[in-house]
Design brief:
Elements: E1 2-3, E2 21-22, E3 25-26, H1 27-37, E4 43-47, H2 52-58, E5 65-69, H3 74-85, E6 92-97, H4 105-115, E7 120-126, E8 131-135, E9 138-143, E10 149-151, E11 155-158, H5 159-168, H6 178-184, E12 189-193, H7 204-207, E13 214-226, E14 231-233, E15 236-238, E16 243-245, H8 252-265, H9 270-273, H10 287-299, E17 302-312, H11 322-333, E18 340-345, H12 351-354, E19 358-369
Parallel strand pairs: 1-4, 1-6, 4-5, 7-12, 17-18
Antiparallel strand pairs: 2-3, 6-11, 7-10, 7-11, 8-9, 13-16, 13-19, 14-15, 17-19
Bound molecules: cytidine-5'-triphosphate and magnesium ion.
Amino acid sequence: MIVAAGKGLRVGGEVPKQFRMLRGKPLVRHSVERLQAHGAADIVVAIPEGGEELARRALDGIKNVQLITGGTTRQASVRNALEMLSQDAPEYVLIHDAARPFLPSDVTQRLREALVGNPGAIPTLPVVDSLAVAKDGVMTGTAERETLRRVQTPQAFRFSAILDAHRAWDGEPNAGDDAQVLRANGGTVALVDGDETLKKVTFASDLNAQGANMRIGQGYDVHALASGEELWLCGVKLEHDMGLAGHSDADVALHAVVDSILGALGDGDIGTHFPPSDPQWKGAASPMFVEHACKLMREKGYRLGNLDLTIICEAPKIGPHRDAMRTRLAEIMDVHIDQISIKATTTEKLGFTGRGEGIAAQAAVLLMQEEPQ
Ligand code: CTP
Ligand code: MG
């Protein structure tokens, strides 16, 4: 069971945090995929009232997942899902927060093992800082950190034990977690080692942490200069006594751009997507390769942060064409011209570029996670 019925008030924003993107996926999808990978047969996800569309989109294509409407507190959401499951009761249940996306398999394993001798098991971490009891901004006491643990989810239970405990609960309407509910009903809760990577996404900064929603990519390409060929750079045709030779229009700059985007997405290279052996790409206009890479980028939930392109050649001079090239590239990629930088350099007459035998191009991109609308 995954509880994903909260409002995510502390993270803020229009879409509740469990449906926001983190490392290319909606938060809740991480937990569902991990639990399935760890052997969970069926998963029930508690979602907010009216959240069906968001949930369906977030979990698109995943099998063996049922949705149920949660309640006004986390505990009520758990209870709704437990009652639903009780109609065809499993032997064990793991109760997990959608807000903890990165569940390591060894935590799941430890919980399963601990359930053999106990009705409940939870992952915990030691407290490493010393503790102060606070009141009105001053320290009024201390606490023994050796006896304290930080509690995580998933929490694992024999199903009948946790169902009975929830039904019997007469404490606060929102217990801190399910382990407290089981304990209040006399059940033993075993402690296993948790994991720092199981940290809960609570604040907006947790979603943006560690560059988790950015990806970097770089691309490099070379084409030979030859007489009788056209010279295309960044989708702009330049007048020059030589042009670039190649299977397509040989726009070396755009090819480097394509590879940088595919690199950032971790999705092969230009040759994987447009094999030179495939006759349909013969003489193809390279802007369509870039458009295709940008389409893949958007489908994976990213947008361009910025692109930095370097063209390496002795001639022609790139400076006079820089603005036209930036404008054209911005148009092809459907981005603002400010997001695109085009630089040029010679190699001081050294090497193949220096001898005028060819042109090389290097591109670097930063892609940023797109928030769902
Ligand atoms: N949850 C739930 N039903 C509720 C409240 C919370 O299913 N009525 C879920 C959340 O979706 C989350 C988990 O319980 O996966 C842990 O709660 P928390 O981190 O507090 O999430 P929110 O309550 O959504 O956030 P906030 O307290 O900032 O509003
Ligand atoms: Mg909450």
